[in-house]
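Action item from last week, closing it out:
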Amino acid sequence: MTSRSRLKVRAAMAAALLAAASVTACGKGDSGPASSGTGWPDKLVFAAVPSGEAKTFEAHYGLFINALSEELGIKIETFLAADYAGVIEALIADKVDIAQLGAFSYALAVQNGANVEPSGVLHHRKGDKPGYVIQGIAPAASPVSSLEGFRGKTVCFPDPASTTTLLPLFEFAKANMVPDKDFKRLTVPAGTAIPRTVKKGDCEVGLAADVQMESATKAGDIGAGDLKVFWTMQAPGSPIATRTALPQDLREKIKTAAVKINADYLAAKGVCTGDKCLISSNRDFGYLPVEHSYYQIIWDACKATKVTACGPLAN
């Protein structure tokens, strides 16, 4: 079964799950009827993939969703998906209006028929440019020092459908490095576990996002001198995507509000302090404006690498 077929088959499942999500939403998942006078719906559905239990989702997105609802004057319900595929399927089925996606999952959503546009892109710290840094990591004593350091090694990769896997494969292809020939892949689906796995020696080198290295250090999984970063590349950040079937003036309002609502905004509202005001599972500062073309590198990487996870994007 093709990637697109799997998405279509599971779309009905996503719709059913969304309608039954009484724990994570206040009612059924489709947008409500149009509000009188504006043509706007009475409610919207926001979806994301939690990094833990429902209470974790609330900690990561609750304040942002409440503020967005206040800015728009529309009730917002939530849908917790098990993975990005679930979010994509719900978008395709028009059961979700706004979704927090990864760069790769945004490209897959568009390619598989989700009519969405990016309304903002996460940036980790105040003043940062959008996106994040993919890091090649190794034990501190390792002699590796460049992209060539991956050659001949056992490499820890995160989820095959992640940007942190796709874009390095694009760079390896440019350097004529063939997966499973010039290096051995070991998949560690929980990307946050990769620093710990490299430290243990299960992989000689690994690929991780800079925020995952930061989290591993804070959690005590690795010490300050355990690992080193020997290679880096910039990756596009995670977008908040909005259905284009929504009224244009509402979509513009969502874009304006998404960029406005950041950690400083939430702190000024008096609803949180310090790190509790950060947004998303990566604890980001907020969103910046973004255009669809910002994600062109994902399509380019899929066409060049033709990895299975790209599905029709590779054609």
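Closing note: Residues 54-72 form the longest helix (19 residues).
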